[in-house]
Amino acid sequence: MAWLPKYRQVTLLLYIFVTIGASSVFANHFDVYKAITTDYDKNVLPVRSISGPMVVSVELTYFYLFSMDQVQETITFHTDLEMSWKDENMGWKESKFGGTSKVVIPSSLLWKPDIYVMSGLSVEYMMPEEQRFVTVLSDGTVRLLKPCLITNRCSLSVKTFPYDIQTCSISLVSRMYSTDQIQLIIGKKRRSLNATVDDGHFYVS
């Protein structure tokens, strides 16, 4: 059994190498986190240039029908509201932080667009604000995913049942910011949904 001590030695060295590598990655992420959040003001629209509005990509990444009420003419569905934008106060040089290209941090630390469902009778977010996280890229791009249950108005017609086709419009808009400050655009993941943007309003049908 002379090989046993040597085997243990190799295993120990491998364990030390993996631990050191993981610690280095964690340190780089922590350094980025401190660099981008120090002196950051989440109450101010993070746009330094006055050449145009902040562009916010908005989309519903999937659609799961939960229920339909023909009398009240409403539908309730589950979806993920995904938004992305570029925060000009969030970027960093990857070379200064060990090549770190992105970090995941609590969403409560950053400015976020106040997009809400204008056509919704009720919106229930499946995760409270203090438990949500955002992904921040080194160029300042921020990605936020908000799972939610939406009850939306929907004019229903069942005259041709069971061959009827229902079309329901869902409108999302910024509550506080004008179109001069925020420009909504359609995301690229679900082109199968009929989505349009008109005068600052995001429509899906």
From TrEMBL:
Gene3D superfamilies: Neurotransmitter-gated ion-channel ligand-binding domain. One of its GO terms (cellular component) is membrane. Residues 32-193 form the Neurotransmitter-gated ion-channel ligand-binding domain. GO terms for molecular function: extracellular ligand-gated monoatomic ion channel activity; transmembrane signaling receptor activity. It is a multi-pass membrane protein. CDD domains: LGIC_ECD_cation (cd18989). Coiled coil: none annotated. Keywords: Ion channel, Ion transport, Membrane, Transport. The keyword Transport applies. It comes from the Eukaryota. It is found in: Membrane. The keyword Transport applies. Pfam families: Neur_chan_LBD. PANTHER family: NEUROTRANSMITTER GATED ION CHANNEL. Belongs to the ligand-gated ion channel (TC 1.A.9) family. This is Neurotransmitter-gated ion-channel ligand-binding domain-containing protein.
